[in-house]
Design goal:
By secondary structure, this protein is mainly α. The chain contains 5 helices and 4 strands; from the N terminus they run ααααββαββ. The protein has helices at residues 3-9, 11-19, 23-68, 72-78, 113-120; strands at residues 92-95, 102-105, 130-131, 134-135. The strands form 2 sheets. A two-stranded antiparallel sheet has the order 1-2. The protein has a two-stranded antiparallel sheet with strand order 3-4. A hairpin with a 6-residue loop joins strand 1 (92-95) and strand 2 (102-105). 2% of the residues are buried. The mean pLDDT is 88.
Amino acid sequence: MSEAMNVLTRKNSLRATMREMNADQIEKLLADVTAIYDELKEEKRAQAEAEEAHRQKIQSLIALMNEEGITPEDILGSTGTTKPTRQVKPKYRRIDNATGKALEWSGRGRTPKWITEHEEKGGSRDDFLIVGGESA
């Protein structure tokens, strides 16, 4: 806490500081504190009014939506807020000997276990690189 806050929030410290001031200084300090207090009070009142007006607007919109039979899903669905995902073509492919299935990886995200194991044995991921639509 700053020294000024210590003086202002502790009655004995404030009393000792004010004893060092003359009457004009004390009156000015009192006027300044009162003005600041009134400003802060007005700011809080204005903020509370704005929040209440916002809450009332939301309530009126909800009432209007209910009257018209509109659901939040209708609004969210019509704005197109969901971005369509596109499929990323695989960059690497390996045919699993046990199952005969093609194991594929786009090169994005976590490296699959079959590539990690191959690299640990000294191989290169380029061994599985898809060239011209077929595995190398």
